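Contributing new records

If you add data, match the layout below exactly. Sequence lines come first and carry their own label; structure lines follow with theirs. Keep one chain per record. Anything else will be rejected by the validation script.
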Amino acid sequence: MSDTKTYYKVLKNGRSCNGGDMDYSEYLPGGKKAGKWTPVIKNLNLCNSGYHITKFWNMWYYDGCSVFVVDVKGLLENVDDVGVVDKYVCQSIRFVSELDLVFDDRANTGDWNTGNCNTGDRNTGNWNTGNWNTGNRNTGNCNTGNCNTGYRNTGYWNTGYRNTGYRNTGNRNTGDRNTGNWNTGYWNTGNRNTGDRNTGDWNTGYWNTANNHNGSLNTKEPEKVYLFDREILFSEYQKISFPDWFFFKTQKDDPTLHKSWLMSFLSASKADVEKTMLLPNFDYKVFENISGISKNMIDKKIMEV
């Protein structure tokens, strides 16, 4: 399997393989000597601005391309990606060396495979049926580990899709040995669990067979939950439709999430913000403590024309 700590740049005739105006010819290595650093680009935006590099050159290679090992500066982490990340963006790169690629067309059915017995294309490992796989015995596409059946798996023996852990059967699991979907913990059979060994759904604790528990070893659903620090019937809680702006994208380096709340609040519609005050038990002080959004800020938003 490829060294996932190494970054690559794939070029075609001195330019990026998937487009771009920059000619990298003057930055390429000379023999064993690395090339010079490219000019710094500070305002990074994936797919739009910056130098795009990859850990898996086989996902981008096509006939006639050259693959280079590169050093990077100012790498922007892809914090929201789950599974295999096909490209990154950074502020500057330096071409270190060119790969000497040898493709074995006799053992493979597809094209541009570096391993053996591959049926798909651009595989680096062996016995792959899909495309752009780096490990071995993958059936899907864009897998990094081994024996994956789904797509974009980073771990091993995953059957679902976009799993990061090991031996997951469901989809979008971050932990290990989950059968359900969207689990962050381990050994969950249900869905959307943060803890471990839950059979039910939406549990934060451990060993729950019921749903929506923060504690552990529960078999019955709770009659009441807390909303804005006050009790509410769980049956009433299940009927709540939270405002769309609550489901924000988290910002980088934001441990309190106040920055993320604010970014979502600024772009939210007036009508969606008004839904916030209609939530049962709504309390301005509690909400400000959680989100950083004050009553004064909400009032100004609602008064906007």
